[in-house]
Amino acid sequence: MDESKKLNAVIDVIMLAGTILLRNGSEIYRVEDTMIRIAHSQGIMDCNVLAMPAAIFFSIENTNISRMKRVTSSAYNIEKVCDVNQISRQIVSGQLDLETAFYPTKGIKC
Q: Does the keyword Chaperone feature in the UniProt annotation (predicted)?
């Protein structure tokens, strides 16, 4: 996989994890912390994350790479929050690759 596709895959997973956490009632600081931990585990050290009840933002310093996701609906589903937290731990520890984490039939379930 070339570098640009790998970076996009990493950011896709980061944004998906943050979106699921935010939609399902996770605390804002946990959304941000999880996104940063996944980024760091994939070699993205200089990143910024801002989570608010209605949106999440992710950017990489000294690049023109940034993503924003508006979150228009939310509910409380602690099971989904726990699932994302477990998958995040597996990504950070190297037990789970990004492709498996991203696709619903293999990893994170929306």
A: no
